[in-house]
């Protein structure tokens, strides 16, 4: 997983988790959005308004509708809790994969490519927030 904070040219990356059969990419894309919000809130102070870009349309859809499967709902609930507790607002917008190359490079631990795309980028490992996954229905 990986996300990039453009304003501070900060690239964050983490290993993927065992999802116990959950759709691999969708789960991790959703968890990465939550991780970005959690990082902003905990490390940088959650801005009043935040925009997160994702190249996964399912992830964009669940954050915009606040509707997901029972196993993904805890991710939405945790993101909503961050927004409510910090009195902030966030939106998740779709960006084509070709425009999401830095995050893609970070998720693949391809630091040379990330550096070539954003010279001076600083890299940090992050730990995704712990959430209790809902039961599979």
TrEMBL record:
Protein name per its UniProtKB record: Uncharacterized protein
Species of the source: Ephemerocybe angulata
């Amino acid at each position: 997983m990986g996300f990039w904070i453009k304003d501070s040219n900060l690239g964050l990356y983490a290993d993927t988790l065992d999802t116990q059969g959950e759709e691999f990419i969708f789960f991790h894309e959703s968890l990465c959005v939550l991780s970005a919000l959690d990082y902003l809130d905990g490390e940088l102070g959650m801005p009043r308004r935040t925009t997160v870009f994702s190249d996964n349309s399912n992830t964009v859809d669940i954050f915009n509708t606040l509707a997901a499967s029972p196993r993904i709902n805890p991710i939405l609930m945790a993101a909503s809790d961050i927004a409510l507790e910090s009195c902030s607002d966030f939106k998740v917008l779709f960006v084509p994969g070709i425009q999401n190359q830095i995050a893609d490079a970070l998720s693949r631990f391809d630091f040379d490519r990330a550096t070539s795309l954003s010279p001076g980028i600083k890299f940090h490992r992050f730990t995704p927030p712990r959430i209790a996954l809902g039961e599979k229905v």
